[in-house]
Design goal:
Layout: E1 11-17, H1 24-34, E2 44-48, E3 54-61, E4 64-71, E5 87-90, H2 92-100
Length: about 120
């Protein structure tokens, strides 16, 4: 997707539909006020419009904001239902799968296991 972004960069999905007339300033306000996150952090903030045919990704890169848009000509993006907190954290692999048309919410990846000892 965005080649210059580190793979460890957090990805935050805003679950509510967004009016896509909003650009950098309007989306920044959503990140700060609704998502209660730092818009200047090294994170990707992902938004979808009401008909789920467009996705915007906002991020800060060194000295300015970047805004990335993908518009589908056919089909819709799988998008999570509205939730109480409104924000969902995913990783970059899941973001790429989402952008490729996979429903990551019906078929999540295997759980990451953390062990202290073998045996």
């Amino acid at each position: 997707m965005i080649e210059s972004i580190a793979s460890a960069t957090p990805v935050y999905l805003y679950r509510d539909a967004v009016d896509f007339r909003k650009s950098i300033n309007g989306l920044s306000v959503i990140v700060q006020d609704a998502m209660t996150l730092d818009v200047f952090s090294s994170a990707l903030f992902v938004f979808c419009n009401r008909n789920r045919r467009q996705v915007k990704i906002l991020y800060w890169q060194k000295n300015g904001f970047c805004l990335w848009l993908k518009r589908l000509e056919k089909d819709k993006f799988a998008w999570p239902r509205k939730a109480a907190d409104g924000t969902l954290t995913i990783d970059q692999s899941q973001l790429n799968w989402l952008l490729d048309g996979f429903d990551i919410f019906k078929h999540p990846p295997h759980e990451t296991l953390h062990f202290r000892y073998t045996g």
